[in-house]
Amino acid sequence: MQTGKVKFFNVSKGFGFIIADDTNQEIFVHQTGLTSEIRENDRVSYDVKDGKKGLNAINVEKI
Question: Which domains does the chain have, with CATH numbers?
Fold first, then answer.
């Protein structure tokens, strides 16, 4: 599992971005990849998988 901070998350549209702690890379997150509710500035743990347009965060959980 990786860790990071939620940079942006739009609840009504169901997507956002996480900034990875180790690389400072932005990783896309969709509501289907969440295991708990998240908001901007939350600390999260997550797994990464390749998506159609880049990396996607999955199994996202607030820590």
Answer: 2-62 (2.40.50.140)
